[in-house]
Amino acid sequence: MTGHATASRRATAARYDDPRITAVGLLMETVGGLNARLAAQYAEHDLSAVEFEVLLRLARSPEQQLRMTDLATQTMLTTSGITRVIDRLERDGLVARSACPTDRRGSNATITGAGIERLNAVLPGHLDLLEKWFTGQLDKDQLAGLLDGLRIIRDAVRPGATAGADSA
Question: How many domains does the chain have?
Answer without folding.
Answer: 1
